[in-house]
Design brief:
There is one protein chain. With 400 residues, the protein is of the alpha+beta class. 65% of the residues lie in helices and 6% in strands. It has three domains: 138 residues; 126 residues, Alpha-Beta Plaits, CATH 3.30.70.2730; 87 residues, PucR C-terminal helix-turn-helix domain (Arc Repressor Mutant, subunit A). α14 packs across α17. The longest helix is centred in the middle third of the chain and has 48 residues. 34% of the residues are buried. Belongs to the CdaR family. This is Helix-turn-helix domain-containing protein. It holds the Pfam family HTH_30.
């Protein structure tokens, strides 16, 4: 006998009605599936094995309804059991919205057919009320099931994301890195830029929210990892320089106080380890430039990185500063060297070289065009001076 426990007058369902419901459970489940196929086009397009999984959940729900009528105190266990019987990946096939559409279709079938199974006319209204109560519990159970699945996927995604970021920092094999990133929805051909700095808090969910909210407003995909007190962020997007600089500046707001370094933008995630290596090297060396901007490009810290013993920084200085001047021929290297030695005084440089000051101006403009560094700018002058020194050392070792 089924009774209410909410203080109302008990309502009963006879044993004969319960037996009819038990015998009709299979037909009700089949009728529910038929109604789903008729009303929901997306359900008809599902593969047969996925529709069979939905049928399993429906059959379990119908049979549990009879047990629920006999003992309403088992509502939570019985309704949750319907979803525990489904395959683990059912929530990936069917969204929560679609699940509620399926429940609604099943409710309509229940309301049409179950009351007709009542042994007495007076039981029909009772059955209708219990159907509404049970399907409400089913809807809540579905929401709880999907929430639990989302939490599990979120925890798994967070661990997988941490592995991907750690692999980028360590320079792991390309195939394993790309397969993990693809599982997180990262487009393999998307460009990648790495930011590193200090983590703002000991609460990873807060950090994740801060970074992801900014990335979402920028329309950029993002991967992030908290490694102790260090925060590593990888963001993707177009290669437009201004766009990347703006994205880096906005994302840097999510970091704690202190320097934030931006590695070079690379063509794909497979090359992101180069961006990470440059950014990490620059983060270690940025202490030598107290007035560095925030964020600062790793390429702008080449002198400090070279002084710290980074061979990659030395190579880049030779390629970006020395070799262009050597390939241009003429007296460009001599001119910029002399200009720096006399403290940037144009007339003194011209006297040292026995040329007209306009000749020196022309040569310095050529130096700026070839290297991207203006000798009259104090910071660029440091980059040029260190670059020339590194180039001489490299030449003495026969490296170019």
């Amino acid at each position: 006998m089924a009774t209410e426990r909410a203080g109302d007058e008990p309502r009963q369902v006879s044993a004969a009605t319960l037996r009819r419901l038990e015998r009709a459970s299979g037909g009700l489940a089949t009728a529910s599936i038929a109604a789903m196929e008729q009303r929901l086009p997306w359900f008809r397009r599902m593969p047969a094995d996925q529709r069979a999984s939905v049928l399993l959940v429906t059959q379990t729900g119908v049979s549990n309804f009879v047990a629920w009528l006999q003992d309403p105190t088992e509502a939570i266990r019985l309704t949750a059991e319907a979803f525990r019987s489904a395959p683990r990946d059912l929530s990936r096939w069917v969204s929560l919205r679609q699940t509620l559409e399926l429940v609604r279709a099943a409710i309509d079938v229940f309301e049409q057919q179950l009351p007709e199974l009542a042994d007495e006319p007076g039981e029909r209204s009772v059955l209708r009320e219990w159907i509404l109560r049970y399907t409400r519990e089913i809807a809540f159970a579905a929401a709880t099931s999907y929430a639990a699945a989302a939490e599990a996927r979120g925890a798994w995604d967070a661990r997988l994301e941490a592995l991907v970021v750690d692999g980028i920092v360590r320079g792991d094999a390309e195939e394993s890195l790309l397969s993990r990133a693809a599982a997180l929805g990262w487009e393999p051909s998307s460009e990648a830029t790495v930011l590193v700095g200090t983590s703002p808090a000991d609460d990873p969910p807060t950090i994740v929210y801060q970074v992801r909210s900014r990335a979402a407003r920028l329309g950029r995909p993002v991967l992030l990892g908290v490694q102790g007190t260090r925060l590593v962020v990888v963001f993707g997007g177009p290669s437009e320089e201004r766009g990347d600089e703006e994205a880096a500046a906005r994302l840097a707001e999510a970091f704690d106080e202190g320097p934030v370094v931006v590695g070079p933008t690379v063509t794909s995630l497979a090359e992101a380890h180069r961006s990470a290596a440059d950014a990490m090297s620059a983060l270690r060396a940025v202490v030598a430039w107290p007035t560095a901007p925030r964020p600062v490009q790793s390429a702008d810290l080449l002198p400090e990185r070279a002084l710290a013993g980074d061979p990659e920084a030395e190579r880049q200085l030779v390629e970006r500063i020395v070799l262009p001047l050597v390939d241009a021929g003429g007296a460009l290297m001599e001119t910029v060297d002399t200009y720096l030695e006399v403290g940037g005084v144009l007339e003194n440089c011209a006297r040292q070289l026995y040329v007209h000051p306009n000749t020196v101006r022309y040569r310095l403009r050529r130096v700026a065009e070839l290297t991207g560094r203006t000798p009259s700018n104090p910071r660029d002058a440091l980059v040029l001076r260190v670059g020339l020194a590194v180039g001489r050392l490299a030449k003495s070792r026969g490296l170019w």
